[in-house]
Design brief:
Largest sheet: 5 strands, mixed
CATH architecture: 6 Propeller
Order of helices and strands: EEEEEEEEEEEEEEEEEEEEEEEEHEE
Distance between the termini: 48 Å
Strand order of the largest sheet: 1-22-21-20-19
Number of strands: 26
Structural class: mainly beta
Shape: globular
CATH topology: Neuraminidase
Number of domains: 1
Strand content: over 45%
Helix content: under 10%
Length: about 300
């Protein structure tokens, strides 16, 4: 079976240092995403071209939608609530991570109204990170320890399996996911990557296939986790591809975040759109984003 090849185009010239974590808000017709090291949350409305952002703090690793219309963040060393316009920033519980060792990197609301987000070693070398679950009441539990670079998350339609990426493992793992507790069990590899590029963020489509961003690989790959088969490659004119999410009126546009952090002048000259937001018609739709239910 021939691989479907597609090419992403610039949707928004944002020049993010480390764009990440896109999530489509179908109620507003807008895409939220973060610039991790700039500590900013961005909001982009494709229909009007409107774009704005707000500052959270030193870093912001992930953003997810709340059922009440606000947002929940994994930022710097903890979890926070904020309104969609950036007002009302407040801690979501008392949990704090060790910000000298780790920072938050990627997270999503799960199918049951909770928020799952992970941390990573600042030096990207040591397994100092963890994957956490934030309950609506503010309680936090540890789902997974000994993580180096916590990254992509996606749940099956039934919500009983979660896919997960710890980037240096160069694979996508799946776990059985307990609906009541969020605990993980029965870890197994569903796809491996030999390069170029390492798996970063990802999303899932309505056919149950994963779209995996390849950091350093200038592409997103669509993979069937049941067989490991590569079905689609989306070429991106930026090497540091970080994540993807379905959006648009029919949720069939794949929005792709990228980064420019760490690129030298010569690389930036070859990649003038590094750090921009890209989009491509995916040929398949994706499910609506899950929402966090704050108590």
């Amino acid at each position: 079976m021939a691989i479907d090849e597609r090419h992403a185009e610039v949707a928004l010239e944002v020049q993010a240092m480390l764009g990440e974590g896109p999530v489509w808000d179908e109620r507003r017709g807008a895409l939220f995403f973060v610039d991790i090291v700039a500590g900013r949350v961005h909001r982009f409305t494709p229909a009007s071209g409107e774009h704005g952002s707000f500052l959270v703090g030193p870093t912001v690793g992930a953003v997810a939608l709340r059922e009440d219309g606000g947002l929940v963040l994994a930022a710097h060393d903890g979890f926070f609530y904020v309104e969609a316009d950036g007002s009302g920033l407040a801690p979501a519980g008392s949990f704090r991570s060790d910000a000298e060792l780790v920072r938050f990197n990627d997270g999503k609301a799960d199918p049951y109204g909770r928020f799952v987000a992970g941390t990573m070693d600042w030096n990207e070398e040591r397994p100092f990170g963890s994957l956490y679950l934030l309950e609506p009441g503010g309680a936090v539990s540890v789902l997974l320890e000994d993580v180096t670079i916590s990254n992509g998350l996606a749940w099956t339609e039934r919500g009983d399996v979660v896919y997960y990426i710890d980037t240096p493992r160069r694979c996508v793992d799946s776990f059985d996911f307990d609906a009541h507790t969020g605990t993980l069990a029965n870890r197994r590899i569903v796809a491996s990557f030999e390069g170029p590029g390492a798996p970063d963020g990802m999303t899932i489509d309505d056919e149950g296939c994963l779209w995996v961003a390849l950091w350093g690989g200038s592409r997103v790959e669509r993979i069937d986790p049941r067989s490991g088969e590569r079905l689609t490659v989306v070429h991106v004119p930026a090497s540091q591809v970080t994540s993807a999410a379905f959006g648009g009126a029919r949720r069939d546009v794949l929005y792709i975040t990228t980064a420019r952090r760490g690129l030298d002048d010569a690389s930036l000259a070859r990649q003038p759109h590094a750090g921009d937001l890209f989009a491509v018609e995916a040929g398949v739709s994706g499910p609506a984003a899950h929402r966090f239910v704050a108590s």
